[in-house]
Design brief:
27% strand; 8 helices; single chain; eight-stranded mixed β-sheet; Fructose-1,6-Bisphosphatase, Chain A, domain 1; alpha+beta; D-Maltodextrin-Binding Protein, domain 2
Length: 283
């Protein structure tokens, strides 16, 4: 994959994300918007998730025929050298309640490695983008610089979620208490993509979550890394290899030079747990 190909895929991703974002934005805060349950009542989907993904797929299929497309709503389709990861609305629970923290994610991978990624925040009109040229926000260079000490740091922790309380519940709650005591501020945005992009922009200093899907993180993790930030994944109590890490379930992202040992401990401890089944999560 050369630079020109990375840039070309990035521009397709941008057009696709903008197209899907326009569809989703048309439904945002509309009266009577219905949200259906997927896995359980913590996991929602709306008609605009489906419509947004349909639009993203249309653009990719037109501009990059012969691709594999992996979408949250539409599953896996196609065959080819390029694999696209689509999250049509990352942060559906926020979207469904009118909370302006959600985005459209589109990433392109070749030989198992992400080479281009876009996250579009339609409400703020923020286009986060990364490719061989670098990382950008609305065309301006993006650098993941921020607070590097816990006492000054703002952490965007999607933890503990209900699925994090199935195993090691007491330790998860204790760890959250330690975060609140040790770090300047702890917030949960309800969107992996928006959280990772805020860290890439230096608006927050770290984020972490468990049980992520590839479409959740492929684009924003790539953007964070190209912006100079840290992105690490964990499994079985260990930090995992960087290759194809958008396929790993547990992640931690931070600004450049950040030293947050407590989060590393949490990642190692919580990544030891088995994958929760639907039955145990919904009990």
């Amino acid at each position: 994959m050369n630079a020109a190909q990375s840039i070309a895929l990035s521009e397709i991703a941008r057009r696709a994300a903008l197209g899907g974002g326009a569809v989703a934005l048309a439904g945002f805060r509309t009266e009577g918007l219905a949200a259906d349950e997927k896995a359980d009542f913590h996991d929602l989907v709306t008609e605009y998730d489906r419509r947004s993904e349909e639009r993203v797929r249309e653009i990719i299929e037109r501009e990059a025929p012969g691709s594999v497309i992996v979408g949250e709503e539409g599953g896996v389709t196609g065959d080819g050298e390029v694999t696209w990861y689509i999250d049509p609305i990352d942060g559906t629970s926020n979207f469904a309640r009118g909370i302006a923290l959600w985005g459209v994610c589109v990433a392109a991978a070749v030989d198992g490695e992400v080479v281009a990624g876009v996250v579009y925040d339609p409400v703020a009109d923020h286009v986060f983008q990364a490719d061989a040229r670098g990382a950008f926000l609305n065309g301006a260079a993006l650098t993941a610089r921020g607070q590097t000490r816990p006492q000054r740091a703002t952490i965007l922790a999607s933890f503990p979620l209900p699925r994090d309380l199935v195993h090691f519940k007491e330790r998860a709650l204790e760890a959250y208490a330690e975060l609140e005591l040790d770090y300047a501020a702890v917030r949960d945005f309800g969107s992996s993509a928006i959280s990772l992009c805020h860290v890439a922009a230096g608006w927050a200093d770290a984020t972490f979550a468990f049980e992520a899907n590839p479409w959740d993180v492929a684009a924003p993790a790539f953007i964070l890394r190209v912006a100079g930030g840290q992105y690490r994944t964990y499994g079985g109590g260990e930090q995992l290899q960087e290759r194809s890490d958008h396929l790993h379930r547990h992640y931690f992202g931070a600004v450049r030079d950040a030293d947050f040992p407590l989060i590393d401990v949490i990642m190692r401890e919580q990544s030891l747990r088995p994958v929760p089944s639907l039955a145990t999560v919904t009990q």
